[in-house]
Amino acid sequence: MATTGNTLNIPLEGVDSEHCAMIVDKGLSKVQGISAHKVELNNRRAVIETADPAEVLPLAVKAIRDLGYDVDTVKKSYPVRHMTCASCASSSEMILKNQSGVVSVSVNYANATASVEYIPSITDAHKLKTALQAVGYDLMIDETEDAKESLEELQRESFNSLKRRTVWAVALSIPLVFIAMFGMNIPYANYIMWVLATPVVLVLGRQFFIGGWKQAKHRSANMDTLVALSTGVAYLFSVFNTLDPGYWQQRGLQAHVYFEAASVVIAFILLGKLLEERAKGSTSSAIKKLMGLQPKTVTMMHEGGHQMEMPLEQVRVGNILLVKPGEKIAVDGVVVSGNSFVDESTISGEPVAVEKISGAKVFAGTINQKGSFQFKAEKVGGDTLLAQIVKTVQEAQGSKAPVQRLVDKIAGIFVPVVIGIALLAFVIWVIAGGTNGFTQGLLAMVTVLIIACPCALGLATPTAIMVGVGKGAEHGILIKDAESLELAGKINAIVLDKTGTITEGKPMVTAIAWLNDNENAESILAAIERRSEHPLAEAVVKHLGVNTYPDVSNFESITGAGAKANVADMVYYIGNIKLLQDNHVGIDAKLQDVAQKWLTEAKTVVYFADSQKTLAVIAIADKIKDSSVAAVLQLQSAGIDVYMLTGDNAATAKGIAKQVGIVNYKAEVLPADKAAFVKELQQQGKTVAMVGDGINDSNALAQADVSIAMGKGSDIAMDVAKMTIISSDLARIPEAIKLSVYTVTTIRQNLFWAFIYNIVGIPLAAGILYPVNGFLLNPMVAGAAMALSSVSVVGNSLRLKWKKIGA
Fold first, then answer.
1. Which of 408, 497, 697, 705 is catalytic?
2. Which of 69, 81, 516, 779 is the most buried (most CB within 10 A)?
3. Closest by alpha carbon to 581, among 671, 668, 675?
4. What is the mean pLDDT of residues 130-136?
């Protein structure tokens, strides 16, 4: 369904009743810019009339999502070609943003990608591609393997072409400079320089003129505009002076030529782009390393023990694969026979190899050690953990930090402002420069246009983010967006869930005290616990080892308390002491004494009772992770307030908190209370991180400023969280905070030098020092400085790779 005029048809998800439609309709009425709207329940869509569809659509989609409903959209990242500077990224982002049906877009100059969210019933990738092609860019929308290989080939060819053009430009510029400095008196010197400069400017530098012309046709400007104007003016002025030197000589002036300036500037800019492309390739080395972890072929097992080597692409869920010593594991799965140790450091950051026996999970990209084993494929292709990590890292590297918004605004107006400054400098020189005012004004204009390229400004933030996110991935810290990476360094309060975060999350029953004969009671307890999804219930079932179970009816899970169920017309309760008290169940004094003793040992106590009395108390212990104590101490030493929240009883919470050194803790906390506690800390002005691993932590994770999930926890927690610690090791959190501090520091350094470079360089290029000491910046020096600024910013970002974030 397409838009007509200024009408938007937004497909809705979850709006399945008149009540829902009324809520959405009311929400849309608050969106500015909407002149009329209605929700069509039968068509599952919102029809909106507006004078500015591109501006209103993102606001309308946000309003719908804030109400708890959703819009049918597609989110994808596409490579963008032919961008040459930050203004190109800003320009292409604005073009995509103004396309009907686009909800959000972010174009990253450093890794040349556009992350686009659009409504497929309004627009598609082909329309977006056409829009970008009209202004000289291109969107690579084909996602097949052949297309990816083709793109890589295009990128290689583009780099090789740039290298060839740079070599020729430098080779032709060297004799040009020599003649300009030492051979101006040789016969036909100007004509020789014209011959040498022409292929450099018009052939080797033609991309700048083509790009500048395409931008001009759409009333836009970028780096190509600056280079084309500066070198074009210098070249044409020199041609005029070569063909008609008498024009200036009759007016008592010398007919200067600047062929060497035009040529050398293009040579320097090409050299700078070459070095920049090479350095930018290094910033994404983490992605290349991750993508290279999967083998190209696998050994598949067939009936009768027959082995066959096959391409990775042919592996399907359920296939049995053989892994030999030293081989990389191809897909995610579970071991069915054999045993070995597997190096999982490539995805978890943990250096110690993990033992794999029958039933253990294995992951794509990890490396088998000495043994061999067979495993059944459970996740293949894009569903593997490795593929998800690669996708997340790519998306995070393409996302923008909050500080980038200011840079984008500056880049968007930078080129027109620079052109204005260059023309102003020229006019002032012509008016106040005396006899040589015109030529010196022309030189100043050319120099301003050359030195003011915003490449360094555009590379300052994204290159640091790319390196930071990549370094995090190498250490088992999966960062989902640039904003959370930037914000992590500001954390001053961190809230830790207990089970699975501070502790191993693998509770084990250490003892059971029964009131009377337990023969029948054991099977009833096991039958009820089998129905529960709580990890403590799993521990009880495993400990009892019962094989036959009675029928259970009316099972009810009671949040924050336990469970209730019927067996043979009798009501039974399993949970904490509050559950028993609420249902007026008596507790035997002997069992209460045992329970109290276990509580002082920091064990979790679970009560099992019928409707009248307690039948048993169960002691469950969850081992504290080896790294938890040191991690908490590190966080506290950094001035961060550490809190522990748990649904467990007060005595157990106190014991665990004491062991790990946490002073601030709360026990018997319900899931909703965790989110409320985070909000309470935020209202005190704190920047709060929430760390959890379960479904019950998801609300608090969503509320926190920085949300961190444990990789061995629930999928919901990981979906909500902005960071995931793949190994579930608490020690990685101080590392993530340190990485954030280093990354933000690098961004600030980059932006400082990018801004200072332009603040100092542009006035110098305009000739501000000429009245003081006669200094006028040479265009060739300006070209070299411009090239060097971009390379220095990327180089500074690459320093992050060698920063130590671990203990």
1. 497
2. 779
3. 668
4. 86
Q: For residue range 473-511, list pLDDT tens digits in order.
A: 888 888 888 888 888 999 999 999 888 888 887 788 989
141 Cβ partners below 8 Å, 6+ apart?
Answer: 78, 125, 126, 128, 129
| Helix residue ranges per DSSP H, 17-69 | 18-28, 53-66
Strands (E), 281-431: 297-301, 307-311, 320-323, 332-338, 340-343, 354-356, 361-362, 367-368, 373-379
Asked if residue 290 lies in contact with residue 400, where contact means CB atoms within 8 angstroms, the answer is no
CA 702, 704, 710 angle in degrees (round to 5)? Answer: 75
Residue 122 token pair = 């309004």
Instruction: Please provide the DSSP assignment of 667-731 as one string.
Output: -S--HHHHHHHHHHHHHTT--EEEEE-SGGGHHHHHHSSEEEEETTS-HHHHHH-SEEETT--TT
Cα angle: 590, vertex 595, 598; to 5 degrees = 130
Please, which residues have CB within 8 angstroms of residue 584's CB and are 6 or more apart in sequence?
A: none
Number of neighbouring beta carbons within 10 Å of residue 357: 12
Closest CA to 298 of 336, 334, 327: 327
Assign 3 a pLDDT band (cuts: 50, 70, 90): very low
pTM for this one? 0.69
**CA dist list (Å): 118 to 3, 127, 724:** 13, 11, 27
| Average pLDDT of the residues in 435-459 | 78
CB atoms within 10 A of CB 601: 12
| Cβ within 8 Å of residue 63, ≥6 positions away | 27, 28, 30, 31
Q: How far is CA 793 from CA 86, 272, 463, in A?
A: 13, 12, 8
Q: Return the number of other C-beta atoms located less than 10 Å from residue 367's C-beta.
A: 17
Nearest to 283 by CA among 465, 458, 159, 467: 467
Local structure of 449: helix, strand or coil: helix
Question: What pLDDT digit, counting tens, does each position of 679-710 carry?
Answer: 999 999 999 999 987 667 778 888 899 988 88
Annotated catalytic residue 224 = no
Report whether 800 contacts 742 (CB < 8 A). Answer: yes
Give the residue from 664, 361, 739 showing the smallest Cα distance to 498.
664
Question: Residue 365: what are its φ and ψ, rounded to 5°?
Answer: 90, -10
Alpha carbon distance, N-terminus to C-terminus of the chain: 56
User: Contact, 386 vs 293, CB < 8 A?
Assistant: yes
Q: Which residue has the tokens 């070599």?
A: 167
Q: What's the burial of 49, exposed, middle or buried (CB within 10 Å: 0-12/13-18/19+)?
A: middle
If you average pLDDT over residues 731-752, what whole number do you get?
91
Residue 327: DSSP 8-state: P
Where is 655: in which H helix or E strand?
helix 650-660
- SS3 annotation, 132-163: HHCCCCEECCCCCHHHHHHHHHHHHHHHHHHH
CA distance 763 to 772: 13
Strand boundaries in 451-507, DSSP class E: 477-479, 493-497
Q: Rounded to an integer, what distance in angstroms lies between the CA atom of residue 524 and that of residue 545?
A: 12
**Contact between 471 and 801 (Cβ < 8 Å):** yes
- CA 255 to CA 238: how far, in whole Å? 8
What DSSP letter does each residue of 102-134 carry, written as one string? EEEEEEETTTTEEEEEE-TTT--HHHHHHHHHT
pLDDT digits (tens, 9 = 90+) for 355-400: 888 888 898 888 888 888 999 999 988 888 888 777 777 677 666 6
Provide CB contacts within 8 A for 452, sequence distance 6+.
Answer: 226, 414, 418, 421, 422, 758, 761, 762, 765, 786
* Between 278 and 80, the higher pLDDT residue: 80
Going along 559-705, which residue ranges are E strands?
Answer: 562-567, 570-575, 604-610, 614-621, 641-645, 664-666, 688-692
